[in-house]
Amino acid sequence: MSDSNLMPSTDKWKFTGTHLFSIVLALSLIFAVYSTAGFNNALLAMVGVMIGLTLVLGNFGFTGGWVAWIKSRDGRGLRAQMMILGLASIIFYPILAQGSLFGTDVRGFVSPIGIAPIIGSFIFGIGMQFGGCCASGALSWAGAGSARVFITLIGFIVGSVWGAYDIEFWRSLPGIRVSLTNEFGIVGGLSVTLLICAGVALATLILEKKRHGKILSYRDEQVNSLGWRRLISGPWPIIAVILLLVLANFLTLYLAGRPWGVTSAFVLWGSKTLTMAGADLSGWYYWQNPAALERSVFFDVTSVMNFGIFAGSFVAAIMMRTFKPDWNISTKMILVSIIGGLMLGYGARIANGCNIGAFFSGVSSASLSGWVWFVFAFCGNIFGWFIRRKLNF
Description:
Helix content is 70%, strand content 3%. The protein is mainly α. The chain has one domain (17-391).
């Protein structure tokens, strides 16, 4: 179900200086954010660390679940994603309809449905196959030591800036925003979402049993033998992953006033790099309000969460003793990873988000665009998988 294949070492576990270094590094990040941007953003960085730990110690990724289904009709990853979406929607729909959470104003991600997001999500889906990850996976597996995904992440940032440069054209195309709660009420909108989640899960069960002769289990013999070590070196049980990711998005909604997103920070990082190199972005439609370019990235809530995910993933990989970057990558794979990253970044920008902002947070915000994104991104994955097999990479 993961975007990578990081399984914990079965050797006797003991706390070392490397473990201490990784924890100190994560704490240093949180303190730096606190010193620069205040307590609220430091808490968001902590949420990011929790997400990174969860994704890596839970061996969980969106791309991995989709690939497992396309390749071998293993629906466990897709069913887990449907459970995440269903539970988050149950929690988010009434909160977003009310517009406040514990006295804090909150809003959801209700994006338009149109030509741009359809094309963008399809491109993103192909990029998932070429780049070997999604948006959250680019951060978590790069942080966990995947050299190949780190290359994809660089392409992701460049593609995001490219998409921002072209965004005026894509946003000029027609689109319509559809909120399921506005159309059908909270109960009706939630019913639609839960029925879709149940339908996808049921389809995976039927076709999985047809392919394998049984429903595949989340349990693993190695996992059962780990005992208490499972908490600190993984893999965490899937129910824990589901609950923690939903909790992380809930905390993000409260602290940031909107759900979890990832890719807007990539545009910011790439754009700030260009400005430091002397480029003038004042004429870009995307940067009509250049305030974010002029201050520390620690003031950007998406950036501090992304840094936290990266740091948490690093800590998790150290705990699992799987942090062993291998830079012996073929030229062909480097090229494929860069192309995949470019497609991920460009696709996410014109589609108004990625598997997190557009899909997870979009569906949780009662936006019909979240399901449209899922359909076309999944089709892009199937197309990308076909191309990968034909070109043998």
